[in-house]
Amino acid sequence: MVKPLFKVSTPNEVITTLKDHLRLKEIIRNNIEEVNIKIALHRFLAEEIVASANLPGFNRSAMDGYAIRAEDSFGATDSLPSYLKIVGEIKMGVTPELKINPGEAVKISTGGMLPEGANAVVMLEYTEQIDDSTIEIRKSISPWENVVREDEDLKTGEIILRKGHRLRSQDIGVLAGIGKINVKIYRKPKIATISTGNEIIPAEGEPRTGQVRDINSYTLGACIEEAGGVPVYRGIIKDEVIRLKQEIKKTIKEDKVEVVIISGGSSVGVRDVTLEVLNRLGKPGVLIHGVSVKPGKPTILAIADNRPIFGLPGHPVSAMIIFDLFVRPLIRWLQGGEYNYNSAQEIEAELTCNMVSDSGREDYIRVFVYKEGEKIYAEPILGKSGLISTMVRASGLIKIGLNVEGLEKGSKVIVRLF
Amino acid sequence: MVKPLFKVSTPNEVITTLKDHLRLKEIIRNNIEEVNIKIALHRFLAEEIVASANLPGFNRSAMDGYAIRAEDSFGATDSLPSYLKIVGEIKMGVTPELKINPGEAVKISTGGMLPEGANAVVMLEYTEQIDDSTIEIRKSISPWENVVREDEDLKTGEIILRKGHRLRSQDIGVLAGIGKINVKIYRKPKIATISTGNEIIPAEGEPRTGQVRDINSYTLGACIEEAGGVPVYRGIIKDEVIRLKQEIKKTIKEDKVEVVIISGGSSVGVRDVTLEVLNRLGKPGVLIHGVSVKPGKPTILAIADNRPIFGLPGHPVSAMIIFDLFVRPLIRWLQGGEYNYNSAQEIEAELTCNMVSDSGREDYIRVFVYKEGEKIYAEPILGKSGLISTMVRASGLIKIGLNVEGLEKGSKVIVRLF
Questions:
Q1: Does B355 touch chain A (CB under 8 A)?
Q2: Which CATH number fits domain A60-148: 3.40.50.300, 2.170.190.11, 2.40.160.60, 3.30.40.10?
Q3: In this complex, is the C-beta atom of B358 within 8 Å of any C-beta atom belonging to chain A?
Q4: pTM confidence score
């Protein structure tokens, strides 16, 4: 007969317990800083970002070619071209002074502003210059073809990014695009690591027989950094109630940490020390004692004065796995982010429509990923490649290979998430 | 008829061109620094790491219980227990002075050193203390059961990590475990970004009609940082051959950058400026002019004085996609890492053997992932959870859910890569 040592909780119960007992809003409300967007990558927004103006703010050519009235190209073909009069050339970065009338064209480069009267751009490839002032057009162009409309990237008043969003490269770009150089974000949570165990010595020391070097301070410190927190290394504390309690109080007061991780104490005696300390630090005290995870069962979670304190197993593997399950998402949570365990970079999804692609090139399609029932869908986000907002809206990219002609609706695709 | 503007290269051709023309060894040889392992996360090793001693270095208990001679437990059951004499208790972190003889047992905690004569640990749960000096054992224990052997985590002389390996949390832990506090790594490559385009103004400015803010400096700067490089922001340069050339020479000399990224110049005129500059900077000059990727076709790659210089398209989306395809892996390469495009966090693989799991707990199994033909396999790495080396050898983790009894050989599993 095996005696159960303690009653274990499921991972979901641990998360529910954290949610129920932590007054999160209180923590993050006082944790806002403003930084330059050049150092805001992977940080969590503490403000909502709204477009204060249209982007690009004027009708812009998406191609090299001629700005025309689309109507003047209607019906044009290789065998029956249209002829237009060249009345000038658009200079980049200035408002064009000229305007075009029926039958006229203006030379324009990618990014140039359309002159008054023009409503389309015909690509250079579909034109031929006949003489100094005449071009031949061999293709019918629709109104606004090859043009980025003035509000096509962003519309004034549109919500671009929400509070709690984790800033990716493209998000930094959109902030630059609207002139938002400084941005309010949540501070990185400071997390102390304390190793316990009388057999543990500092990593720089030379262990005598029976001693081992402190591994957990280093793995957990790196895990904290990787997860977006700031590690505070408090070293090794002997397995004594008074010293451990003092050390925790000290790091909370001196380092102003928001979370404390104690590792070690997998043996019953040491676990009892940790347990006693965690119950003496404040209300509500120890909430979880043992989890149904292997490896990682002897995990303790306490909350004292609205601060989570974890007692992780001493085994490095168990400590890392438990960190991953509970501390990693908590670090996002403490920055106003979503509490999701999964941070996968690639997922399989079902394409929501046919996608055409030319053979002989790799196509990268921006997609928005969403779930309906148990199925994950990837919905292509269409839009010109000059539109940063399409990248902001997208969850990731799918690739259509060099020799693939296209993908059918319902195909399984691999989405490379941002 | 559409006139081809230039001959395009496939993504593979771009990578081959980089490999063939860049004298990589020359660059990385002079790019080594030594840092404390606390700041070495995600950096690339510039030295091979070899175990200088066994880890843990002594036979260690993996459980709380009694150190015994396994032979003394042979045949013990609930109905026919063995009786052993308690001759003392092991103190943590010191070499035990006592030794045990046949019929004797010593109390021991997880992590404690086995005394001379003992070759197994019987778990507390399978024993009962009869009086002050006698325990009853109700289970037969094999030799070395519940013991971490002295060289089970690492063997003296074993290669732990190879040059060019990217350090993960568990790798930092193993370095601590062997007392390797300072480690040689490759410097992060410095990469300059220059935006071109006469319509582009600094992000902090107020655009007049016809002007747009500089987005690419910011997205690419963030991409560089995310990929492990150090961005050097050189701002916006007008589309003139002399100024652009001066700026590139300046950033190479002043900032000592290893790569230059020019973005913008999607229009023919500006592209011609970039092209002329890149051909004037040194040998071999422009190697790629156009790639078969959509979006991103008008990409230029030059090498001058053993330094890659990219001309990325001006469209932010295209610039990011091309960055991802060619610059991101190059940043790994410049640090001695592998040149792989894919940095997925989750992959599907086929399990190589049956895995048993108890219902009512989540199991996390360390696996080594490898490819054979077109198939990807996940091979479980067995070993106690105290062994940091198992995490070092593992590629990732698979999870066996709370209510799953186990997985059969050949099952499809999702591997969460480190």
A1: no
A2: 2.170.190.11
A3: yes
A4: 0.86
